[in-house]
Write a structure and sequence with these properties.
Length: about 375
């Protein structure tokens, strides 16, 4: 791939913080492939003056990597922006006469920003780990319920069938066998809060002024009105949240910013959209975002899409799938512009569709961080 393609030309205008938050750049730094290595080598050969900037951005991406688990992406981005801005302002405010003597490596502004950022992440990570270690390793359903001051109603499904539980606000909970659900008879405060042990599917009535929160095995799920599944069995090491419709925010109950995220009326934390899921590792308090095992078509016109392609460019095919399933597919549109597809993919689930497409164009794909990343050498015109 040429270093002068439109997809790569945008990098000529990038500053260091733009590179740090560019998905393609981060994937190259953290999970390089033969294709991305060749692509960036060619780009650097065409623009050797950008090599120092690339080296600095790589260093920041690698420095950020250890801190990504305890902090949300939004929190890290805000930290980077604040740190870089403070560094720029500090450098601009210096009144000393300019000098042509090069700065020592350890005094370069970008390295100071990285050091300040690492200090910030280190302190935040230490506080996060300290709070995790000083409290109980796991937050149990029984502990959460007994700590509540208000009287709660509990539904315990002792049958072999899923039972419906209708809440005062109109929300519906489908409680699986063995599941327990505790909630207030009426949601009178600023939030609608319930406590779950086991598995349940939620259809939450919309109320933007009163967020709906589910506490389950150390994980808090926050919504304004949507449908989703939660699996939180007492002896299971993981908690899983799968989104069907709407948007869902999740965060650990041991998160130092937990109370702030609960009180905020907006969705803060790690946000999931339809066909995405989160797996929360309870012992490690680790969140891993992915796609559900069998992504479903979004409701609406997309369900009537026949997925019949006749010499259709692959970028158009991927865009069609993105809109139909609400998933993000990362691919190089320039590289795949000369790859056509003629196929009828009406009946296959999403991943089978992708398997067929990738076999046709000799590509492969991975699911990373709740999105699909396609790797390809392209097609000859």
């Amino acid at each position: 791939m040429s270093g002068s393609t439109p997809a790569m030309k945008r990098y000529l205008q990038y500053h260091i913080d733009d590179f740090v938050w560019d998905l393609a750049f981060r994937q190259w730094v953290l999970t390089p492939t033969r294709e991305t290595e060749a692509q960036w080598r060619q780009w650097l050969a065409a623009h050797p003056d950008k090599a120092p900037l690339i080296d600095e951005a790589r260093a920041l991406v690698l420095a950020l990597q250890p801190g990504e688990l305890p902090l949300s992406e939004q929190e890290i981005q805000q930290a980077v922006q604040r740190t870089v801005e403070r560094t720029r302002q500090r450098d601009l405010s210096k009144t000393a006469a300019p000098t042509t003597r090069p700065l020592p490596f350890y005094r370069r502004p970008w390295l100071r920003a990285a050091a300040a950022l690492l200090l910030l992440l280190g302190i935040s990570g230490w506080l996060w780990l300290n709070r995790l270690m000083t409290g109980p390793a796991l937050v149990s359903y029984e502990q959460l319920v007994t700590e509540q001051k208000q009287t709660l109603v509990e539904r315990f499904n002792q049958t072999q069938q899923t039972i419906p539980v209708k809440l005062q606000d109109g929300s519906l909970v489908l409680l699986k066998p063995g599941g327990r659900l505790s909630y207030a008879p009426a949601f009178r405060g600023p939030r609608r809060e319930v406590y779950l042990s086991g598995e349940a599917f939620f259809e939450v009535a919309k109320d933007a002024s009163k967020p709906f929160l589910i506490y389950a095995n150390g994980l808090t799920t926050k919504v304004l009105g949507t449908s989703f599944l939660i699996k939180a069995y007492p002896k299971d090491p993981n908690v899983t949240v799968e989104v069907k419709t709407g948007r869902v925010a999740v965060f650990a109950q041991k998160d130092p910013a937990h109370q702030q995220k609960v009180a905020d009326r907006d969705l803060t934390g790690l946000v999931l959209v339809p066909n995405q899921k989160i797996v929360f590792e309870r012992e490690q308090a680790r969140l891993a975002k992915s796609l559900v095992d069998n992504p479903q078509l979004l409701p609406g016109p997309s369900q009537k899409n026949p997925f019949v392609f006749d010499d259709t460019p692959i970028p158009t095919v991927f865009t069609t799938l993105e809109r139909a399933y609400g998933v993000n597919i990362v691919f190089d549109s320039d590289l795949l512009a000369n790859c056509p597809l003629t196929a009828e993919l009406t009946d296959q689930p999403l991943f089978e569709k992708l398997d067929i497409i990738c076999r046709v164009i000799e590509a492969r794909y991975d699911v990373m961080d709740g999105q699909i990343v396609v790797y390809s050498h392209g097609c000859k015109p």
